């Protein structure tokens, strides 16, 4: 059976419930995608490629990976570092703000663990997903090792998937991000950009231009997300526009794109058509944004996806 791996950072999430209480969970773009894929498609093996620490929260995070049935072959434990952490605060009018403690997180040192021997465990036909956030969190000193790994995996027949999630504060300059993203586009077999991310870095403000931009790198399957607007795809010489039904009661848009990515990729691995995959992915994203936080409750999520025909 082929596997799909998600490379990047999973963080400890703290949410202030009131002045004296915090609720703790785990989240991070690639982790969110892996969870939603695995929940919808138990027949596929999804795994994390990340580094955590040996502290109590890292142990709890690994337990959570197991609880979500994620493969942990490539989850490493750094002996001196701990996971990144962020706090969500919601003000009196419901506006959310985030504070991060992630500048020395264990995941930044992931490349220390990905030796050639470890890389050799990836098989032809496996897939590896990276996001713009994955690229940003790997220490700049280790990025050349990441590019070598990706090139090596691609040459061995591993499918590379890229979502250029852009978080300005994680980069020292826009030029640094542009260079890294262009290199990732060059390697990608499948790209799942959001228009918003491309707009800031490349001045691309609509889905058609996003498709054209990705085509210039020879990417074979391109899926452009644009919030509640339609999704535009390109593959096998065919451009398709997929309508999205806007959700009227949006609670929290965190991880809409992540849920979309995970479910789209799972559906495609199971040989669903591009239109079916987009519709399932849009249902997943539309469900997730009706719940607070990155990870929607499993039962409600599953019920919506069963109704949608997974
Ligand atoms: P990101 O979270 O990466 O910024 P988008 O905002 O483009 O991604 O949203 C990803 C997907 O989530 C969209 O393609 C769409 O399927 C779904 N989505 C986002 N906002 C809405 C909405 N208001 N109503 C319905 N679906 C939405």
TrEMBL record:
- Keyword Transmembrane helix appears in the UniProt entry: no
- Which SUPFAM superfamilies does the protein's record reference? Ribokinase-like (SSF53613)
In the UniProt record, does the keyword Manganese occur?
A: no
Domain named Carbohydrate kinase PfkB: residues: 1-297
Q: What's a GO biological-process term for it? A: D-glucuronate catabolic process
Extract the Pfam families matched here.
PfkB
Q: Which UniProt keywords apply?
A: Kinase, Transferase
**Entry's Gene Ontology cellular component terms:** cytosol
- GO MF entry, a single one: 2-dehydro-3-deoxygluconokinase activity
The record's section on InterPro entries has: PfkB_Carbo_kinase, PfkB_dom, Ribokinase-like
The family this protein is said to belong to: Belongs to the carbohydrate kinase PfkB family.
Q: What is this protein called?
A: 2-dehydro-3-deoxygluconokinase
Instruction: Name the species this protein comes from.
Output: Marisediminitalea aggregata
Q: Lineage of the native species?
A: Bacteria, Pseudomonadati, Pseudomonadota, Gammaproteobacteria, Alteromonadales
């Amino acid at each position: 059976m082929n596997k799909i791996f998600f490379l990047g950072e999973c963080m400890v999430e703290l949410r202030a419930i009131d002045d004296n209480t915090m609720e703790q969970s785990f989240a991070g773009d690639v982790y969110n995608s892996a969870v939603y894929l695995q929940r919808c498609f138990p027949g596929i093996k999804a795994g994390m490629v990340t580094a955590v620490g040996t502290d109590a929260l890292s142990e709890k995070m690994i337990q959570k990976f197991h609880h979500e049935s994620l493969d942990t072959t490539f989850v490493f434990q750094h002996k001196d570092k701990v996971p990144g952490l962020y706090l969500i605060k919601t003000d009196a009018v419901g506006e959310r703000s985030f504070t991060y403690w992630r500048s020395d997180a264990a995941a930044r040192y992931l490349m220390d663990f990905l030796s050639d021997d470890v890389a050799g465990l990836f098989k032809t036909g496996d897939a590896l997903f990276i996001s713009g956030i994955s690229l940003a969190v790997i220490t700049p000193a280790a990025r050349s090792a990441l590019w070598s790994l990706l090139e090596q995996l691609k040459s061995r027949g591993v499918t590379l998937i890229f979502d250029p999630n852009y978080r300005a504060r994680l980069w020292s300059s826009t030029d640094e991000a542009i260079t890294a993203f262009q290199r990732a586009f060059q390697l990608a077999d499948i790209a799942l950009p959001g228009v918003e991310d491309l707009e800031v870095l490349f001045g691309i403000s609509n889905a058609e231009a996003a498709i054209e931009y990705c085509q210039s790198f020879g990417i074979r399957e391109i899926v452009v997300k644009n919030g509640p607007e339609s999704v535009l795809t390109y593959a096998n010489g065919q451009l398709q526009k997929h309508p999205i039904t806007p959700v009227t009661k949006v609670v929290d848009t965190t991880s809409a794109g992540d849920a979309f990515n995970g479910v789209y990729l799972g559906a495609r691995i199971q040989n669903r058509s591009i239109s079916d995959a987009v519709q399932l992915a849009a249902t997943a994203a539309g469900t997730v944004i009706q719940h607070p936080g990155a990870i929607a409750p499993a039962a409600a999520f599953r019920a919506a996806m069963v109704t949608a025909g997974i």
